[in-house]
Amino acid sequence: MKMSQDCIFCKIIDGDIPSAKVYEDKEVYAFLDISQTTKGHTLIIPKQHVRNIYDADASVAESLFARVPKVANAIKEAFQPVGLNILNNNEEAAGQSVFHLHIHLIPRYGKEDGFG
Ligand code: 5GP
Ligand code: ZN
Predict the structure, then answer these.
(1) pLDDT tens, residue by residue, 48-105
(2) Domain extent at residue 41
(3) Is the dihedral of CA 113, 38, 97, 95 positive or negative?
(4) Histidine triad motif: where is this motif (predicted)?
(5) Is 102 marked active-site?
(6) Which residue's CA is the closest to the ligand 1 atom numbered 24?
(7) Residue 8 CA to ligand 1 centre (angstroms)
(8) Rounded to two decimals, what is the model's pTM?
(9) Looking at the 3D structure of the chain, how many domains does it have?
(10) What is the ipTM for the molecules in this complex?
């Protein structure tokens, strides 16, 4: 598995940086975002280090996006939100701050949940 030594998400996958795991299998890892936009805000990442969607080949993208419903339902069960936003930032101009491909799953709790 290709890793990047300076990447904080690769360190999270390796367990060198602690994280609150939501889901894991051979290809992907999902964990709570350190800055909870809403309760249960989760990131899902490929275990293979890929900078962002521009560098993802079909098999990385396929396994990553294919896991979204499973992780979304795990979050739904744990946190009982009434909706969900799915977000993916690519490059700095689009708000990407960690350069290891990731999908944000942001549970929604109604108009007063403080997000959008
Ligand atoms: P981006 O802005 O690149 O789309 O999202 C990166 C996300 O990673 C941010 O929401 C940020 O809070 C989260 N993040 C950054 N460093 C860490 C960390 O060490 N642990 C966890 N769990 N999340 C992190
Ligand atoms: Zn990485």
Answers:
(1) 999 999 999 999 999 999 999 999 999 999 999 999 999 999 999 999 999 999 999 9
(2) 8-113
(3) negative
(4) 100-104
(5) yes
(6) 34
(7) 9
(8) 0.97
(9) 1
(10) 0.99
Helix (H, G, I), strand (E, B) or coil at 116: coil
Residue 90 and residue 52 in contact, taking contact as beta carbons nearer than 8 Å: yes
Closest CA to 42 of 70, 22, 13: 22
Q: Does residue 2 fall inside a structural domain?
A: no
57 CB-near residues (< 8 Å, 6+ apart): none
Of 41, 49, 102, 104, which one is the catalytic site residue? 102
Both tokens of residue 27? 């290809």
Q: Which residues line ligand 1 (CB under 6 A)?
A: 8, 17, 19, 31-35, 43, 89, 95-98
Q: Do the domain assignments include residue 3?
A: no
User: What is the CA(35)–ligand 1 centre distance, in A?
Assistant: 7
Q: Is residue 93 part of a domain?
A: yes
Assign residue 42 the CATH number of its domain. 3.30.428.10
